Amino acid sequence: MAFQIRKGLSAVLLVTAMLTTMGTTSTDCVSSGSAFPDTSDISRTDYLNKITAENYSFISSRYTAAMYSGDVIEIPVNNSYIAELSGGKLVSDNKGYRNDVIELSRGECALFSVNVPETALYWISFDYYPSSDSILPVKASLSVNGRIPFYEAQNLVFESTWIDKKEKSYDRYGNEIVSSPEKLPRWEKKFVMDGSYRYSAPFAFELKKGENIIELNITEGAMLLGNIYLSGETKIPDYSKQEAMDGDRIIIIEAERIDYRNDSSIRATCEFNTALTPYDASKKVLNVIDAASFKDAGQTVSYEFLIDEPGCYYMGFVYRQSDKTDFPVFLDIRIDGEIPNRLLKSYPFKYTKDYTNLTLTDNDGEPVALYLDKGRHTISLTISIDNIRHALETTERIISGINDLALEITKVAGRNKDKYRDLDLVNYIPDVRERLLTWADELDGLRNDLRKHNPKVKEIGALSYAKIAAESLRRLAREPNRIPYRIDELAQSTNSAVQYLANFIDILKDNRLAIDKIYIYQKNAKLPEGIGFFKSIYLSIARFFSSFADQAYSASNKDESHLQVWVNRSRQHVELLQKMIDESFTPKTGIKVDVSIMPDQGKLIMANAAGDAPDVAQSVNYSVPFELAIRGALKDITEFGDFREVLTRFADGLHIPAMIGDGIYAVPETINFWVLFYRTDILEKLGLEIPETVEDVKRMLPELQIRGMNFYYPTAGMGSFKNFHGTTPLIFQYGGSLYGRTADNTALNSERTVQGFTELTELFTIYNLPVEVPSFYQRFRNGSLPIGIAEYGMYNLLINAAPEIAGNWDIAVVPGIVNENGEIVRYTSGGAESCVIFRSTEEREKMAWEYIKWWTSKEVQVEYGQTLQITYGPEYIWNTANLEAFAELPWDAKHKAVIIEQTKWVLEAPRLPGSYMTERELSNAFNAVVVDGRDLRITLNTAVKRINRETERKLKEFGYMSHDGKMIKEYEVPTLEKVRRILYGEN
Q1: Residue 44: which pLDDT band, with cuts at 50, 70 and 90?
Q2: pLDDT per residue as tens digits for the range 903-958
Q3: I want to staple 323 with a disulfide (CB 3.0 to 4.6 A). Which of 79, 338, 512, 816 is the partner?
Q4: What crossing angle do the helices spanning 389-413 and 44-53 adopt, rounded to 10°?
Q5: Under a CB-based contact definition with an 8 Å cutoff, are residues 21 and 127 in contact?
Q6: Interatomic CA distance for residues 973 and 626, integer angstroms
Q7: Which CA distances in Å does 371 have to 299, 306, 335, 342, 942?
Q8: In terms of domains, do 398 and 311 share one?
Q9: What is the CATH number of the domain that holds 752?
């Protein structure tokens, strides 16, 4: 007992000393400290070099200690836990674990005192039990002795194990559909590894002899933490040639029947391909792993199988890998949790357009034989990108270098290049040609190095973007003084070298692999042959004719007694929706519903005119309901007695586009939130605060621009046409409007509107924000645009396609304008998709309203969003417009809070007769002022005249104005105040 007290006191004193050294004596998590230097006086190039110098590849190359070679050291958490300085708690409710464990939730940390026998490199592993109900994996960062040792240690992932339900799922048409997997509640063990899985081996940590402090800081989810293990490197044995045992036994595993997976979204799919089993010509049968779901490094599928006779066995697969043209996908193949030999580490699955048989072979082309004991075994397949990590890192470094060069050139030549003025660029940047040629040579070297994975092909298709980029760099190097006039070819367009390299990275990281079967067989076994040419022809013909009868989810499949619902989404969404309706809505209400995939939302008007409109259309673009309602096609939602109960589920500003007079003709379904995205690592390095106002943005711009960085405003990503989402927020933040009280009173030239539009254009003309940004996502990833305003699509990309910067970006509410009351006004758009009810009989309208109430309710939206994400993955995150439901969906908790706060400022532009002209003229005015340098007020006055002419024409068309120009009935412009008066009775 005395020893434990002295040990605990020693640890506290050690941590306190570290905190003091780091400039703080707080008892909060130590990981506020960092391996990264605290300096703001750095250039962009210096910063990016530091990022490269802080990754694991660089840090580990400078280790001086040897790898630990002793026995595994197990450290019980109840003995090593430093409770005085930690945020978690020691609990005895341990889910069957052998000692007390630590309970940790998001934002909490646990510190451990670890004694090691020698200074060496150690692999660290943990026992853990995911305890959160969330479908998201637990995420954490790890520090050693008060410092995050390298960049990747900030983004550690602790996955759960998922299993399929025992019963298969079928839709009402008899088609087998993907069922939602279930989380398997059990203790897991995992080494500390890269969260993006660029490294498939665990990280090695350099620990000094004696006492060390390890801290685990939970950034997402919750878990119980068991014991800690320190070990040396696990050696994978070399392969020794041997043959499979004599015999003809064969074990066939249908790969679509996955026993365990570490990602819930890995799923089966149906392909009507006669080479696959099982196969049905008339109904969908899940028969292969969906390549679209099995594509990311680190994803693992596992299968159990039984061996009756011990001995050596061959192993084969039926697979297709058709996305990486001429280039393989690599798998780590484990038996009972271990890679049996080096051949099965990053084993290549070659490119093939059709399903093919693959038997694992050695370097001489001989089948690999694996010894298996009698009993149950597990085979696990993990996607690996170890073999191409160097290519990814090199390409990212080249992209950063090109962006730096583009900045230097812009500084020399300015933004407005005069093609008739000679500019001696080489005089200002003497090594410009050498830089370009060096990068081109590096890319050629990369391609040659990667060719070893398929030496038989002269030009590998998957590497073509790298070749195009290298050729582009060489063309520019031939005439370096002409580069200022061809800067778009270098870095600033969709056809630039930077964009080609970004595409190259995306192709390398995408590892889509479809697997039909796994074979484990003895030497004399005969692998199943295909069904044969004639039977394949027969089944293909049968499928062809059955396709004419297959009316599942077709708009032509009508039962007039059922409610007809058209959905403008993919089949996956529709299958899940129909299943929920059949299992929940219909039993509850007695209303039968046929859900159909919408043929084309643009044809809803014609369908209504022809009498073929559905009862409900959902997931239609938020601007469509006005076009239908103004023509009398839609039911006014406010005519239902309980409309307030439903419409108050959403942000008030979302209702404005669906208003005509005192009526509201749509119910929001999803929201396209706009928030501020920022790179936490870069802003911290530069000592910059998150901007609260537009003035704060202006103040931070010199600090960014002097280092070659900038701020992104969404109009830069909209091409030549700037829609309302990009042009109206600043106008509304200044208190401006597009119209006066009525539609015939265009207010673009009113004082407050001019103020807002002036602010918008001056951000580009005076403060030098980039005018055209083809991909904010790519430039956010590489750090040249470390902060900017973007929407849901950007968020989805970052959480699913940018694992290398996970943990190094965040979101905040949008910077706004301070009004006369001192309040920061942060208006943004938010419209996405809506639901509408078509006019018909009173009975059918009531049925439709019951359906809409059910569909947009909190409980249903939460269930739908969770099931969608569990089944199809995080790229299917559901952005419901129901704010209460949104708060319970499996999104990052901190991000949800920011998004919900921003929804208080959602304000959509009204939709009126002729408002498309207002949107177009605002876009034209922006381009005229920012690109062509025209006078703002003259431009807006001209725009007002054009808008007035078109508005008058449309008011006449819809009966609000006579043909001689006299107003028959005023068209009152929808406002936020009017929405609130309707919904809440506010004056």
Answers
A1: low
A2: 999 999 999 999 999 999 999 999 999 999 999 999 999 999 999 999 999 999 99
A3: 512
A4: 170
A5: no
A6: 13
A7: 25, 13, 10, 15, 82
A8: no
A9: 3.40.190.10
Residue 658 has what DSSP assignment?
A: G
Token representation of residue 754: 């001019």
* Cα–Cα dist 699/716, whole Å: 20
Q: With respect to residue 977, please indicate whether it lies within any of the assigned structural domains.
A: no
Q: Name 460's Cβ contacts closer than 8 Å, sequence gap at least 6.
A: 325, 326, 327, 447, 450, 451, 454
Same domain assignment for residues 789 and 874 = no
Whether 70 and 171 map to the same domain: the answer is: yes
- For residues 517 and 317, is the Cβ–Cβ distance under 8 A? yes
Residue given tokens 């703002």 in the structure block: 936
On the question of pLDDT at 799 being above 70, the answer is: yes
- Between 491 and 257, the more confident residue is 257
CA angle 347, 351, 355 (to 5 degrees): 100
Angle, helices 915-930/751-765, rounded to nearest 10 degrees: 40
Distance of alpha carbon 516 from alpha carbon 530, whole angstroms: 13
> pLDDT tens digit string along 347-370?
999 999 999 999 999 999 999 999
Q: In whole angstroms, how far apart are CA 754 and each of 77, 573, 751, 761, 940?
A: 64, 43, 5, 10, 8
**Which pLDDT band holds residue 530 (cuts at 50, 70, 90)?**
low
Query: How many CB atoms neighbour CB 416 within 10 A?
Result: 6
96 and 207 both lie in a single domain: yes
* Cβ pair 81, 111 in contact under 8 A: yes
pLDDT tens-digit series, residues 473-505:
999 999 999 998 888 899 867 788 988 998 999
Listed in sequence order, the residues at least 6 apart from 574 whose beta carbon sits closer than 8 Å to its beta carbon are 553, 567, 595, 596, 597
| Nearest residue to 831 (alpha-carbon basis) of 628, 650, 664, 660 | 650
CA angle 284, 289, 292 (to 5 degrees): 100
* Domain carrying residue 729: 689-829+916-961
262-281 mean pLDDT: 91
Mean pLDDT computed over every residue of the chain: 90
Residue where one domain finishes, among candidates 856, 882, 903: 903
What percent of the chain has a predicted confidence (pLDDT) above 90?
Answer: 75
* pLDDT band with cut points at 50, 70 and 90 for residue 544: low
pTM summary value: 0.87
* Helix and strand numbers, DSSP H then E, in the chain: 30, 40
pLDDT at position 27 is 36
pLDDT of residue 968: 93
The residue length of the chain stands at 987
pLDDT at residue number 8: 46
Cβ 598 vs Cβ 555: under 8 Å: yes
**Residue with token string 């995080």:** 874
For the chain, how many structural domains are there in total?
Answer: 5
With tokens 């005509």, the residue in question is: 660
Tens-place pLDDT, residues 754-777: 999 999 999 999 999 999 998 899
**Is residue 197 assigned to a domain?**
yes
Residue 781's pLDDT is: 87
Judgement on whether residues 892 and 872 belong to the same structural domain of the protein: yes
Check residue 264 and report its DSSP letter. Answer: T
Q: Is residue 878 part of a domain?
A: yes
CA atoms within 13 A on the CB side of 799: 20
Q: Are residues 171 and 273 in the same domain?
A: no
Q: Tokens 């050629």 belong to which residue?
A: 444
Residue 304 buriedness (CB in 10 A; 0-12 / 13-18 / 19+): exposed
Assess if residue 981 is contained within a domain.
no
Band (pLDDT 50/70/90 cuts) for residue 34 is very low
CA distance 182 to 563: 32
Question: Looking at residue 226, which CATH number applies to its domain?
Answer: 2.60.120.260
- 784 and 771 share a domain? yes
Indicate the residue among 523, 538, 553 that finishes a domain: 538
For 322-406, list the strands marked E by DSSP: 329-335, 347-349, 352-359, 370-372, 375-384
Q: Which residues pair with 147 in a beta bridge?
A: 144
